[in-house]
Amino acid sequence: MPHEVIMPALGMAQDSGVLIGWLKAAGDPVKAGDPLMEVETDKATMEVEAAHDGFLTDLSAEAGATVPVGQVVAMISDTPEGSGKPGAPTEAAVAPKEDSKPDAMPEGRKIIMPALGMAQDSALIVGWSKAPGDAVSADDTLLEVETDKSTMEVPAGHDGYVAALLAAEGEDVPVGEVIAIISAERPDAPVRRSRAEASQGRPEATESLPEKAAPAIAAQSGPAPKTTPAPRTAGAQPEPKTRSAAEGGRVLASPKARRLAAEEGLDLQRLVDAGATQPFHVRDLETLRQLPAPQPAPAAATSHAAQHLTADVAAEALDAFLDWLAKESAPATPRAATLAAFAAAAWADAMGEPGAVQVEAPPAAAVQYAPAQGQPIADLAQTDAPAILVLRDLVATPLRAMQLGAEATPVLSLTRAGDRVHVTLEGQMPPPVAIALLSGFAARLADPLRHLL
Amino acid sequence: MAAKAAAKTGTQKGAQTGKAPKGNAEDYLRMYRQMARIRAFEDNANQLYLAGKMQGLTHMYSGQEAVAVGICEALTDADKITSTHRGHGHCVAKGADFTAMFCELLGKEEGYCRGKGGSMHIADQSHGNLGANAIVGGSMGIATGAALSAQLRGTDEVTVCFFGDGATAQGIWYEVMNMAALWNLPVIYACENNGYSEYTKTAEIAAGSLTARAEAFGIEAHKVDGQDVLAVNELTTKLVARARKGEGPFFIELDTYRYHGHHVGDINREYYRAKDEEAQWKTDRDPILNFGKWLTEQGVVTEDDLVAMNDEIRADAEAAVAYAEAAAYPGGHEVDMHVYVDSPELDAALRGQTAA
Amino acid sequence: MREITLSKAVNEAIAEEMRRDPNVFLLGEDVAEAGTPFKVLAGLVEEFGPKRVLDTPISEPGFVGIAVGAALTGSRPIVDLMFGDFLFLVMDQLCNQAAKACYMSGGKLNVPMVLRTNLGATRRSAAQHSQSLHALVAHIPGLKVALPSSAYEAKGLMKTAIRDNNPVVIFEDKLMYQDKAPVPEGEYLIPFGKANIKREGRDITLIGTSSMVQVAEKAADLLARDGISAEVIDPRTIVPLDEETILASVRKTSRAIVIDEGHQSYGITGEIASRISEKAFYYLDAPVLRMGAMDVPVPFSPALEDLTVPTPEAVAERARQSVRGELFHAA
Does some domain include residue B109? Predict the structure, then answer.
């Protein structure tokens, strides 16, 4: 019966050896104990002895070859010719029950899906950077994978040739599972397959190396951790957030205080605003519950009463200015642009920050301008920026007085009454702001030139 | 069961002297078979390691077969042994089955320890093997305690503590020899002196005499040629009989040799052990070859019978290896089993308590 | 109910179990005529004879190893380690051999032995006779660890330990041998893994082990005067640990302090505090506190030794800080 001669494991940390040379030739008779070949590990050169009597046949590795441990390099047969081909190359590592020969994996180093983060147990293959049969060096990128954090390049880790790719692009692979094989020699029949193909007909899908398994599943008693990472879905936050996060500064509070606040719909930021000392504890929620209704925020829609202010200016100065401007500018500056500029300037003075103005002058379509400070009116261009102020130019209509109620955005309305222009401001803002806005706008209408300078 | 030759002191080399009574042929054949089984087991275990199919480390017993077999053939299943990291030989000699042993070495579910012990912790409780131990000297206390328990329970069980010359450097040996001697415990301390403590010659790690160490506690000490299975067996049989009567403890120093390195990866070892020396022990003092020669000279068997027996044993071993390689690993759910055993009587008492 | 000392309670437990099961035996230094230097085992050799109450030479690794071997082969030894500090001497036999025999054999071997030893400082015995080393053995899978806090626990836990088929290490506080507590006359066992709520409270949970239970109770008295109601829990065994009782308590009170006589760092307090932080996080209104012995070897001088262990006053002060929300560490 023929016996296999294998590349032996010659040291504790060694996966392959170099066959220096054969000490017997094919067909030579050998006895158990005769040296057959010389091999070299990184520590020393040594002779490997025959384990059986017979004839050395079927040499399948050449002098100089690097051979993985466990791979068959020759046979000891009953006859000098050999009794047939050597058996299929044996695996270098112990594997659980495998399929029979048609699926035999190439020899080589097994490359596993690495763990790329502490809480990650699988990753998506974005793409292979090498194809079966390609030469690789250890630093070459072999594939790109995506975790819940980012896309990363995974190096080959070993010099050699891509002998097998065992998962396809787009497949999600558990950490520790073998995804590729890198062989020392150029493979005759490199393999490419997907996990989906591999798991057909096999009760356990693909193999994993036991010592590189994903971090041990906690076998301790107790419920599973709440915050299991979900690579692809943005899961619900495990801890309720307070709205204060939007404010930028952290609010410090005990876990129980936070939980109870969230359950009751209380905003811890209000405690901050009320000047309470952090960190907040459960007893501070009593204070929070007693606080008066929330103060208006400067920018947001708040609970101010709807406002209605009016102003009244002579139309003469505005008409004269607009006529002059139309003649002086080429192309002629639209009336809407001028009005927008005045409104925006008044807004900037009252609010302290610029904003876009939407001008509605039916039947024309609404237009928007976002004048920058100091920008010449003639240079104004339309914009898509969302408006913070609406100007309704209704002087060309018979409408005279407006009382429409506050809308989402403050509205300045212009109506004509004889030789006067009525300006109405409706909105919900702090009274001083409303006054300043209307006054500023009306003043510009009354004396355009002066405000331009 | 053993021949009536006088207890041997001083080492003996070479073949047996004197004819053996034919009535013991069965015993002799069993001894030969057990030694051949150990050798076959180790050869296969070594191959498994070199082929990268066995993980971790193991330590070959090849060359020391006569020690384990000579001693264990003098024991029953009720007698206990403790073993060492070089424990496959003891395990086979005390009655273990190849398949369950190979399964254990490969970490499979059908192994003696359900794959949880491996080579260095292999134990076969049903045959009285309290286990191999990865701590040098780690089982000396255990063996002594097993002997104490035998005495307390009023049985005539004997415990044999196997250890190497290197373990004589562990303090616990002196502590337990002291107590064994004080209490006349039925324990036999069997020191397998193979001349090397890992990579260092015994002479460089053990000052003075090993037998004198036991004698310092008043323990009767013997030396025997560890390669002569009959000599080992005769001596052990006598000492076991005396220990059963309460005359223990005893100490035996057995001169022997390990053919392989300290562990399976210790291959380039000429720096501490000469190839000539290894070759000489293999050719002149191999326990199996020499016993086989003696058996054929005594007309107990023919050479052909021995060849047939060896072939059969090798086939058994290879079949066991194949079985073990194909066998299943334990399921992952077993990883946190067997940390504790249940205490059903205690639980019943506790339940009865709350019910009352 | 009668009150007996902790010493007597241990003696009764061992005697009862030795009468009940002939395989139970004692070994250790001076356990026979002397009954150990603490006199706990007095009288046993007279009743059971020198074979079952076995004096050993001063060979801790040796006789613990012997206990392991005896336990593996049909006996049930109680091995006495005179001072808990000597644990370091026996770690291989206890942690590499006894703790692992069952697992390494796939459940076929087991080691029904009890290692009886002690802990506790403030006896002026200095650094090598005053340590509380139960954290070392609690860390090793395969062992069980019991910490009786009074005579009542000492008897019930010892009986259970002897009947448990696994290796158990039981630590008595050497300062408590003469302390009396009510102990029933009849037979009783205390199950492992079941904590005892010694006192109910609403504002903070104090978890104490061994003699720290008494420290916690005295602290609770002090706190009551300030209108703070403390719940006191005695886990009784740290392996297995009754988490549920502790967690239920902290969910109720929202605050916890763990008090133990092992060193503060890398010990019991950290383990229990961590479990509370993980599993009762959303119920916490204050950080979980740990109070162990100072991270120093135990000093001899009376002026120094008492500074190294938690006291009722120190526990009460920390509890007040917890309740008042004064435990914020600015970044």
Answer: yes
C60 is catalytic: yes
Residues A264 and B36: their CA atoms lie apart, in Å, by 80
CA distances from A381 to A345, A370, A371 (A): 16, 8, 8
- Predicted confidence (pLDDT) per residue in B229-241, tens digit: 999 999 999 999 9
| Topology (CATH) of C3-182 | Rossmann fold (3.40.50)
Alpha-carbon distance C230 to nearest alpha carbon in chain B (angstroms): 28
Determine phi and psi for B340, rounding to 5 degrees. -125, 160
Q: Give the torsion sign (CA, A381, A384, A387, A391).
A: positive
**What is the C-alpha separation between B130 and C71, in angstroms, rounded?**
11
Query: In chain B, how many domains are there?
Result: 1
Please enumerate residues of C whose Cβ is less than 8 A from a Cβ of A.
243, 254, 279, 281-286, 325, 328
Q: What is the DSSP letter of C71?
A: H
- Is C268 a residue whose pLDDT tops 70? yes
Q: So what's the ipTM on this one?
A: 0.93
Total Cβ atoms within 10 A of residue C286:
26
Place of tokens 């692992």: C100
Cβ–Cβ contact B78 with C under 8 A: no
DSSP secondary structure letter of residue B166: G
Pairwise CB contact (< 8 Å): B47 & A51: yes
Angle at C324 between CA C320 and CA C327, to 5 degrees: 85
CATH no. of A3-77: 2.40.50.100
Q: In what order do the strands lie in the sheet with A151-155?
A: A151-155, A141-146, A122-128, A172-174
Return the DSSP state at C124.
Answer: S
Residue of B nearest to C140 (CA): B339
pLDDT in tens, C96-142: 999 999 999 999 999 999 999 999 998 899 999 999 999 999 999 99
Rounded to the nearest 10°, the torsion over CA A336, A337, A340, A346 is -130
CATH 3.30.70.360 fits A107-212, yes or no: no
C31/C20 Cα distance (integer angstroms): 20
Instruction: Return the beta strands (E) in C40-149 as ranges.
Output: 53-55, 76-80, 114-119, 144-146
The number of residues in chain C equals 331
Distance from CA of C186 to the nearest CA of A (A): 35
pLDDT at A91: 40
* Residue C129: active-site member: yes
Contact state of A46 with B336 under an 8 Å Cβ cutoff: no
Q: Is 3.40.50.920 the CATH number for C196-324? A: yes
Chain B residue with minimal CA distance to C21? Answer: B153
> Of C12, C17, C29, C60, which residue is the catalytic one?
C60
